[in-house]
Amino acid sequence: MTEYQAFRVELKDKIAHVAINRPDKINAMNAAFWNEIVDIFQWIDDTDEVRVVVLSGEGKHFSAGIDLQLLAQAATQMGTDIGRNAERLRRQILKLQASFNAVDNCRKPVIAAIQGYCIGGAIDLIAACDMRYGTFDAQFSIKEIDMGMAADVGTLQRLPRIIGDGVMRELAYTGRTVDGKEAQAIGLINRAYPDQQALMDAVLALASDIAAKSPVAIRGTKEMIRYMRDHRVDDGLEYIATWNAAMLQSADLKVAMAAHIGKQKPDFAD
């Protein structure tokens, strides 16, 4: 397993556990973070043994968002030409967006486990995940508005589909903090737990359940859900018909049926 500066990555029982590993810096997203997350999720996509991903943060907090030193460094690179500054900034923003696009585009389900701070860029990150779970005392905030900027790495594009337009606007315009209980109530997280241990136990149990399913069926299900974000119902029905014309020929269907009839637990190939 590759060693990373900003992450700890483990693969066990078909579950890839990806943990942001900068607890002394509140898991702030430094330069290494943005580069390594692309490589990690490419490895996840390419590794058939991986069935599902758990994304967490080491220590007391999930993440305090982008490392302010990274922003300060970008500011020092500005010159006197507005056009060249804009081009440089645009390329940098698109590069950061690509890091979280790698999470969103991952073929495997990604489950976020959140405790403590989840602010700024961390909201962009969890919005790119399939499912989110947290602790009662987790603190969620779209903090960019208090820094004099609009969130630009995915929150404003993905979050309306998760919590609805009106609530998203309230949080984006005010930057106010939402705790775990309210986050569950508005649909930002699926469920809240009393502490970090209960959270991780529940998330790993869920991941284990998903990992036991047909990887072909999981892949198709995720692809159809993602496709429907930007297409009409009739487009989606056409796509799933074409997709399943091939995928229903998978051996997984026979394995699942035989296990169901025999009241056994199916064992699917990677």
What does this structure look like?
Helix content is 50%, strand content 14%. The chain is an alpha/beta fold and 270 residues long. The chain has a 6-stranded mixed β-sheet, with helices on both faces. The chain has a 3-stranded mixed β-sheet with strand order 5-7-8. Helix 1 (31-46) links the parallel strand 2 and strand 3 (52-57). The model has no long low-confidence stretch (mean pLDDT 94).
* Main beta sheet strand tally, sense and closure: 6 strands, mixed
Strand content: 5-15%
Helix % is 40-55%
Estimate the global geometry from the Cα principal axes: globular
Number of continuous helical runs: 12
Outline the low-pLDDT stretches.
none
Distance between the termini: 19 Å
Which structural class is indicated by helix and strand composition?
Answer: alpha/beta
Radius of gyration: 20 Å
SS elements, strand count: 9
Order of helices and strands: EEHEHHEEHEEHHHEHEHHHH
Overall pLDDT confidence: 94
Widest β-sheet, arrangement of strands = 1-2-3-4-6-9
